[in-house]
Amino acid sequence: MTPYIAEEFTPNEEEILRRYFTNLDEPVFALVNLPEVVKGALFARYSRSPLSLRRLFLDEFVGELDISGDETIDATIGLRRAEELYNRVFFEYGDDSVAQLGGVHLACEQSSNLLTKVLEWGRLMAYLEQSTRYIAYDDRPGGRFRYYRDPEVLSSPLGARYIADLDRQFEIYSVLVAKMKDFYRETVPQGPGDSDFIYRQAISAKAYDSVRGILPAASLSNVGIYGTGQAYEALLIRMRSHPLPEARDYAELILKELRKVIPSFLTRVDLPDRGEEIGKYQADTRERLEELSEHFFPDDVPVSAAPLVDLTDFDPDAEVKLVASALYPHTRHPDRVVEERVRRMTVEERVRVLQAVVGDRGNRRHRPGRALERPSYRFDILSDYGAFRDLQRHRMLTIDWQQLSTTHGYVRPPDVDTAGCVNEFDSAMERSDSLYLAMEEVFPQQASYAVSLAYKVRYMMHMNAREAMHLLELRTSPQGHPAYREVGQQMHHLISDVAGHRAIAEMMQFVDHSSDRDLERLESERRAEEKRNQRLSNE
User: Fold this and answer.
1) Looking at residue 121, what is its pLDDT?
2) Does 112 share its domain with 21?
3) Domain shared by 321 and 375, yes or no
4) Are 362 and 442 in contact (CB under 8 A)?
5) Which of 66, 155, 340, 433 is deepest in the core (most CB within 10 A)?
6) Do residue 494 and residue 367 come from a single domain?
7) How confident is the model over 440-463, as a mean pLDDT?
8) Residue 416 pLDDT > 90, yes or no?
9) Is 126 helix (H, G, I), strand (E, B) or coil?
């Protein structure tokens, strides 16, 4: 595993931090002895800050806490009795659900953009990931650009090339960030009512968005996780059998820290007849499917062209079933009877029911009930990896993806062309492709580290209409990244025009089909500043 670049703290800072973090010198650590609201606020700030969580806590949160009487705080208080109680409940009654009732806030720092997707696999967990929109990657903490250095790769004949090529990717990124900032300042002048602060923020966010595609998947990120003991058990079992060495290394770090706070919930992770057995089952299944895939889809079979989004499965009868599902809880009749009655309805009668389902939505947070979970859609998507990073964090759906490679080409943002930066961008893509191909045969898993975020990855998203409403209304909002906005807009068109579910599509009234704005974040920054000023005036 890449050596962790540990921060240095003063003796006074260390004294404070030891009360609230399970260690001060490793990339994985848990938060303890803090109010839940503080943990939530700290993680919320985490995603938009270049600082480590410990430093962020010292700089922005310690001053708001009363720590004068905290010297006696001990994370192990009550732990022994709690363990005894849990063990009695579990072993006597076999109730796994007990492990759903205890949770931990965990920070995983300096993890690659491949590992973050492994960490964010679990459906019943909450995540915040460091944003490439708000964080610049042109600095060199400890004298090194921020990317993962796989020990196996570095010790191989490809090690020197790996370092040289990724360093060059970051250098090009740094140059283009500066050029794109100049370009946006020239093309989008500061408004008369915009402060210097919000204008700089909007310019920087746009520049970072435009060139994030140059960054390799090896780029490091910070991830904040909240999960129950049961969710962590499932995550750890999966990670300990994962083909990516970085995932297996982080699994051991996570397990060590979690055992400091919820040891009883994780007693079975490394037991031969529990965690190890499940992990072996998962690994064996994966290997058999890989072998069969190679048999049925050998390398000499050309990869078919595909659109950005393809709707591959839906129920033509979904709107009838939606009406039936909406009426069902308000009757005393069996499901079959309700659906038969709905099929005898006129179109006007069904429309009346659908209008009642959607109600008067004032904003996208007004979401209709569970009747919308009856229709479902399966989308096959081929977008750049940067957009996938954002969409993958939606959890109330089924998502699966193929391994990141350079097979499908890359996406170059139009503004890069307009700004005259095509040659630099394309040269970075060529270098990424060349390094990937050199690594692929020797390091089939680690080769993806070399792939820039602008390269396309294929993934599948299967969701019901209620989750589709949430995802599409959120991801098409004007302040969103153009890459995932386009994905969301096409999904909405497909629901309406291909599935023919126009009534369902119309329910999603806050889907935004407008074209790109010059500075997506400017309006958002204006609103944020207005709220800050209002809060300050009230204090």
Assistant:
1) 92
2) yes
3) yes
4) no
5) 433
6) yes
7) 97
8) yes
9) strand
CA atoms of 355 and 372, how far apart (whole Å): 13
SS3 call for 155: coil
Q: Which residues pair with 400 in a beta bridge?
A: 460
**Mean of pLDDT values over 49-60:** 90
In the block, which residue shows the tokens 């400890």? 142
- What DSSP character marks residue 231? H
Whether residue 243 is found in the same domain as residue 260: yes
CA dihedral sign, ordered 317, 318, 320, 324: positive
The answer to whether position 198 is within a domain reads yes
Which pairs count as long-range contacts for 438-442, CB under 8 Å and 24+ apart, including other chains? 438/158, 438/161, 439/153, 439/158, 439/162, 440/405, 442/156, 442/158
Please list, residue by residue across 249-260, b when 16 or more beta carbons sit within 10 angstroms of its beta carbon and e when fewer do: bbbebbbebbbb
For residue 121, give both structure tokens. 């696999």
Does 365 lie in the same domain as 236? Answer: no
Asked whether residue 176 is assigned to any structural domain, the reply reads yes
Residue 488, domain CATH: 3.30.1360
Statement to judge: residues 83 and 225 lie in one domain: yes
**Average pLDDT over the chain, rounded to an integer:** 89
Domain membership flag for residue 305:
no
Overall domain count for the chain = 3
Residue that the structure tokens 């100049």 belong to: 182
Q: What range does the domain containing 237 cover?
A: 11-132+220-275
DSSP-assigned letter for residue 2: P
Picking from 461, 492, 495, 466, the residue whose alpha carbon sits closest to that of residue 374 is 466
The sign one gets for the Cα dihedral 474, 477, 480, 485 is positive
Is the Cβ–Cβ distance between 417 and 177 less than 8 Å? no
Tens of pLDDT, residues 287-344: 999 999 999 999 888 888 889 999 999 999 999 999 999 999 999 999 999 999 999 9
If DSSP codes are grouped into helix, strand and coil, which group holds residue 298? coil
Spatial distance between the Cα atoms of 445 and 403, rounded to a whole number of angstroms: 8
User: Is the sign of the CA dihedral 241, 242, 247, 248 positive or negative?
Assistant: positive
Q: How many beta carbons lie within 10 A of that of residue 220, not counting itself?
A: 23
Question: For residue 272, what is the DSSP state?
Answer: T
Query: Where does the pLDDT of residue 243 fall: very low under 50, low under 70, confident under 90, or very high at 90 and above?
Result: very high
CB 395 within 8 A of CB 460: no
Q: Do 443 and 388 belong to one domain?
A: no
Task: Count Cβ atoms below 10 Å from residue 384 Cβ, excluding itself.
Answer: 26
Burial class of 347 by CB neighbour count within 10 A (0 to 12, 13 to 18, 19+): exposed
Phi–psi pair at 31, nearest 5 degrees: -95, 135
| Percent of residues, the chain, with pLDDT higher than 90 | 70
Quick one: 52 and 166 in the same domain?
no
Q: Which of 120, 193, 69, 42 is nearest to 401 (CA)?
A: 120
Kindly state whether residue 184 falls inside one of the protein's structural domains: yes
pLDDT at 520: 61
Structure tokens at 463: 């969701």
